[in-house]
Known about the structure:
- The protein is mainly β.
- It is built from 4 helices and 48 strands.
- Strands 3, 4, 7, 8, 9, 13, 15 and 16 form an 8-stranded mixed sheet that branches. Strands 39, 40, 41, 43, 44, 47 and 48 form a 7-stranded antiparallel sheet that branches. Strands 1, 5, 10, 11, 12 and 18 form a 6-stranded antiparallel sheet that branches.
- The protein is elongated.
Amino acid sequence: MKNTFVKTIxxxxxxxxxxxxxxxxxxVNTLAGVDPPAYGVVSTNFxxxxxxxxxxxxxxDDFVISDAGxxxxxxxxxxxxxxxxxxxxxxADSINVYILGNSGELPNSTNLSAASIYAAEGLLSYTxxxxxxxxxxxxxxxxxxxxxxxxxxxxxxxQANMKLYxxxxxxxxxxxxxxxxxxxxxxxSAWYQETVQVPFRMITPSGTGCIGAWNKRVTNCSMTRVPDxxxxxxRDFAFQIEGDVLTAGVTVTPASLNTVEDGAxxxxxxxxxxxxxxxxxxxxxxxxxxxxxxxxxxxLTFNSSNWDVPQDVTVSPGGSGDGVDGNxxxxxxxxxxxxxxxxxxxxxxxxxxxxxxxxxxxxxxNAFTFTDQIDVAQNTLITSDSITVAGINFPSAISVTxxxxxxxxxxSWSSAASTVNNSNTVRVRHTSSGNYVTQTNTILTIGGVSxxxxxxxxxxxxxxxxxxxxxxxxxxxxxxxxxxxxxLSSSIAGGNRPAGLGxxxxxxxxxxxxxxxxMVTVGLxxxxxxxxxxxxxxxxxxxxxxxxxxxxxxxxxxxxVDAHNISITLRDNxxxxxxxxxxxxxxxxxxxxxxxxxxxxxxxxxxxxxALALAFVSFKMIRKNNITAV
Length: 630
């Protein structure tokens, strides 16, 4: 046996000098009862070739789960290596971990591979916790997601796989409930040796009760630390179990469902969160809060073998033919009962499932919109565009205010309430106002959904004055698509009018609404033909004239459409807008013509003098050309 004093001191420093080192869920911890110097008891599966063909020794210690269950992920076993025949002491080739059931006060089987509740053999990924002092303290992460155990008493076996003649053997450190007390955490630890082998006589018990069978390690097998210099022998092993404490509960997913009257069935899943003891059953009984809207399937039963397998509850919707009652909300309760009175699942509740059963007798249509009309004639029957009824599967009420409606292009107009069906088309109509720039509204309502159809009459034409106050007899009609015109007027053009500028239509003034900061276009239709050539001028509040560009301009421009029409485009609060209010454009303009300029003419004597001068110049040119060199 190697000297383990330094190793033991390091173990105690780790336990007592660094108390802040904790584990997420430390489920079992027997380290407090380790008695230094810590000697160990052999627990090794020897893998040497014959004559030592797989003999083994094994130690086991018990632990109790009194909660709803544990999920075990990590095991730590503390020990050391020894070698009697060679000089090598460790390391282990791999580690075996077994969890056995309880039989009386001993493990229930020596068939570790086949009869254990859990077996993880050949764990090559173990970590040495104390390699600096020779090793032998193992941290073992269980494969996969660990293992889950229900409440009960269990036995842990940790066994090193080693070749005796290469690396020796592993010894599991003794411990007790309290240091050097010989008392136990639960039952006394157990030990057995598979067969009697000559090289192991130093570890063979004095009797035969531990050969091929589990027995109390100290009491019956006389297996304790060697040499036991400080009796009484400590009767537990030093180990820790880490993982999660499970809570008994019921998971219900999803927590809400949507169904359609007499539509497809829907399901939700139910599963338990912690294992059940052998023979225990938990029953989940679903109950619908409104069986006319949804019926549920029968009770679900869980036991120790299927507690973690989700089971489905089926919800079959009803309710068709019960009228337009809207979407109905109700709940499904899930009652939990257990055969283990006083056990973890006694008193546990499960969540409810909220269900919405959609009414298929839907009489509320999708929103609809009419296209409004502007610049319509006065006292005229105005008919809207057609809208299509959608989104209903049940007849819906229709009514109209301020006009009439017709269905499916029948030309049968009515103002009386009636009903419409899905995919019907509807138009409305009304008589426009007898006044200029006046809106008339008709409201159509279908199943509580409404829209207003509007028509707005045209702008009042203006009779214009001639520049000197004479009446031209001409008129201008204004249009502004989607905008509102107001303050229409005309007057004799005045102010600081440029010299020679004619104004056959005088000064024209109007106000128009505009998108805030945007552009707006106004059309002017002249009853008389426009001049062949003209410009458009802005007249400001001081009477100053500014020419507006034709066809393009950042702040505004004008375009001649034809012999009777021009359009003017201006920017709200631009250079040509005399109104500082956003959304309003004031536009006083003058359509101006410039007087033509006469071409200067010469008198008769002037013409004669110019002819004589031209003749003299021609004579001189001829003489020059006839000179011959001598």
